């Protein structure tokens, strides 16, 4: 017994028969072309890759400083006692105008130091080559793009070619039904509203294969071998690295100032300093119980309101 | 990274290349193994390097990496003729201005005691690229191996100014500070090392000892407790903990006698408990050994003061 509505529904369209010639002369050749093109692309980009460049000493310095502050900010910081942690935090981030400490924080002085040095360097460069604007070295800009260029150009040409030669082809049918939402993805270049979504057009086939092949390429070409990885490590120590991104993307001065502000806003409230609890943890049940003198901080009150640790440091020694 | 099998398996199979790669990947310092298997793999003669006949069957990346490793091992063991031969072999594939090659060359010069030439190489490297951390570090090492304490500390300080994230350098600085009895400086450096490797019992122990020597017994107790928490078999830390707690008690006694200020009784109780607890633990460790009696008498002495 069929419900009445189903009798009114349009009968399903007869399945399209895809010519086996299409399979032999379009689908498989496309796949082959894409694999070869991918291999070609990876070897070309290897040659186009610019040689490693010396890292700017200021960048390296500030990155190293950031590494140091990140240790203090992270869970590693809990292994210092509270007073020492707070003393470091203030010594690195203070602005010099608060009552707790009269000196300007280490990160801030480093930031101004780097800023003045950079200014001096650009001044020197301008004196030697007048008319050259600072920071914009066109070849350096190009270097970062070269690697991507090869794949971009190739993709554009291939896509144009495919949409030119195989416009309107239906190449494949996926063996399961799909909603119309997939039309954009599966039938790019076809404007047929009535066509079932499980048919795949030529340009869409290109995209599917392009993304699907990535894992295959990784398998086929392999990851970096041990010697290459070690080489990169050694280069880091020698202070050179492959440029990533455009030059000037890392602004040492700005980053240091932001880091100082971050540190300034951190407090030792909410942190659990496990070194301060170490004796209790060690003695466990044998820890002597005394409930009086609750108000006195374990550090003798040197971190009252989290402000006076700079003085407390001297007191505690 | 590195071979999947472990070193004994590789050694039993005598797989020279994999042994060398394993040692590199795990950053082991096994110069003798490297010399044995490196010379076998690359066709060098360790005793008479001039008679070596290097083979070129490996692909260049592998061969260069192994040759560099062999050169480092030769420098490590003071086999400078072999180091010289490997350096020459590296030069066949690598331009002489390569920073990696010149670093090796500098270390070779250091090992034969030619410090002036080595320093010159490092200075040139730094002039080429001031970010070269290796060269800056080696400059310190040159001074340190000549026992020029003050200049070495200055060089290390310069390095740390530029690379403050380097934990190993902070550790080196701490030891340099200790050598000149600068306990405050050493404590600062060890704090930095603690931030870098917070789960290392030995670092906490050393920091605690430095605090204790500088007279900050409270912090010393905390870090020494942390050290024995991280590694219960760290006997030096147990002794240090007992000593710091005793020092704390003496300190409190002296101060209260002088100024009659109120004493943090809870902390005093904890210190006494720490001495007892530490003593028991130590006795447990030494029970049945020849040292047992000696340790017992020592501990008895300290517990009598409670």
From TrEMBL, chain A:
Keywords: Membrane, Transmembrane, Transmembrane helix. Residues 115-136, 290-317 are annotated as: Disordered. It comes from the Eukaryota. The chain crosses the membrane at residues 22-40, 156-178, 198-217. GO terms for cellular component: membrane. It is a multi-pass membrane protein. Its main location: membrane. It is found in: Membrane. Belongs to the EMC3 family. This is ER membrane protein complex subunit 3. It comes from Cyclotella atomus.
From TrEMBL, chain B:
InterPro entries: EMC2-like, TPR-like_helical_dom_sf, TPR_EMC2, TPR_rpt. The keyword Acyltransferase does not apply. Keywords: Endoplasmic reticulum, Membrane, Repeat, TPR repeat. GO terms for cellular component: EMC complex. Part of the endoplasmic reticulum membrane protein complex (EMC) that enables the energy-independent insertion into endoplasmic reticulum membranes of newly synthesized membrane proteins. Component of the ER membrane protein complex (EMC). This is ER membrane protein complex subunit 2. The lineage of its organism: Eukaryota, Sar, Stramenopiles, Ochrophyta, Bacillariophyta.
């Amino acid at each position: 017994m069929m419900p009445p509505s189903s009798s009114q529904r349009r009968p399903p369209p007869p399945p399209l028969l895809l010519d086996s010639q299409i399979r032999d002369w379009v689908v498989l050749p496309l796949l082959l072309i894409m694999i070869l093109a991918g291999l070609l692309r990876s070897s070309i980009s290897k040659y186009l890759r610019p040689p490693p460049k010396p890292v700017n000493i200021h960048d390296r310095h500030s990155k190293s400083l950031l590494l140091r502050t990140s240790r203090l900010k992270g869970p590693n910081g809990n292994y210092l006692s509270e007073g020492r942690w707070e003393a470091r935090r203030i010594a690195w981030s203070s602005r010099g105008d608060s009552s707790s400490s009269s000196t300007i924080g280490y990160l801030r002085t480093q930031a101004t130091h780097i800023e003045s040095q950079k200014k001096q360097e650009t001044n020197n460069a301008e004196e030697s080559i007048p008319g050259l604007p600072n920071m914009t070295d066109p070849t350096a800009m190009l270097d970062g793009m070269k690697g991507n260029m090869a794949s971009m150009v190739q993709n554009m040409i291939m896509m144009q070619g495919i949409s030119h030669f195989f416009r309107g082809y239906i190449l494949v049918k996926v063996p399961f039904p799909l909603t119309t939402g997939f039309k954009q993805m599966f039938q790019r270049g076809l404007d047929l509203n009535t066509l079932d979504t499980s048919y795949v057009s030529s340009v869409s086939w290109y995209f599917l294969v392009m993304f699907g092949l990535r894992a295959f390429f990784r398998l086929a070409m392999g990851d970096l071998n041990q010697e290459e990885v070690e080489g990169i490590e050694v280069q880091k120590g020698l202070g050179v690295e492959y440029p990533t991104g455009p030059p000037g993307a890392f602004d040492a001065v700005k980053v240091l100032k932001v880091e100082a502000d971050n540190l300034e806003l951190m407090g030792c409230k909410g942190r659990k300093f496990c070194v301060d609890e170490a004796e209790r943890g060690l003695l466990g049940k044998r820890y002597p119980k005394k409930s009086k003198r609750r108000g006195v901080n374990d550090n003798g009150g040197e971190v009252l309101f989290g402000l006076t640790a700079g003085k407390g440091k001297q007191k505690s020694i | 990274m590195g071979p999947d099998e472990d070193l004994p398996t590789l050694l039993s199979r005598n797989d020279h290349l994999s042994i060398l790669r394993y040692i590199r990947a795990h950053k082991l310092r096994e110069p003798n193994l490297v010399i044995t298997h490196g010379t076998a793999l690359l066709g060098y003669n360790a005793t008479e390097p001039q008679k070596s006949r290097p083979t070129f069957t490996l692909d260049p990346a592998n061969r260069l990496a192994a040759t560099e490793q062999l050169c480092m091992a030769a420098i490590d063991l003071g086999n400078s003729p072999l180091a010289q031969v490997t350096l020459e072999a590296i030069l066949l594939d690598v331009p002489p201005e390569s920073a990696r090659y010149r670093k090796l060359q500098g270390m070779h010069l250091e090992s034969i005691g030619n410090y002036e030439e080595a320093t010159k190489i490092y200075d040139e490297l730094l002039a080429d690229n001031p970010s070269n951390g290796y060269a800056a570090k080696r400059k310190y090492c040159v001074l340190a191996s000549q026992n020029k304490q003050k200049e070495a500390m200055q060089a290390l300080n310069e390095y740390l100014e530029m690379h403050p994230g380097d934990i190993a350098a902070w550790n080196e600085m701490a030891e340099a500070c200790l050598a000149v009895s600068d306990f405050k400086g050493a404590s600062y450096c060890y704090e930095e090392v603690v931030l870098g490797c917070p789960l290392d019992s030995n670092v906490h122990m050393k920091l605690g000892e430095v605090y204790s020597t500088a007279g900050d017994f409270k912090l010393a107790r905390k870090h020494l407790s942390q050290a024995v928490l991280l590694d219960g078999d760290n006997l030096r830390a147990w002794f240090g903990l007992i000593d710091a707690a005793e020092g704390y008690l003496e300190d409190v006694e002296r101060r209260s006698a002088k100024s009659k200020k109120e004493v943090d009784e809870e902390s005093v109780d904890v210190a006494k408990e720490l001495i007892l607890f530490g003593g028991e633990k130590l006795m447990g460790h030494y029970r049945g050994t020849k040292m047992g009696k000696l340790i017992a008498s020592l501990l008895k002495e300290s517990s009598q003061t409670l």
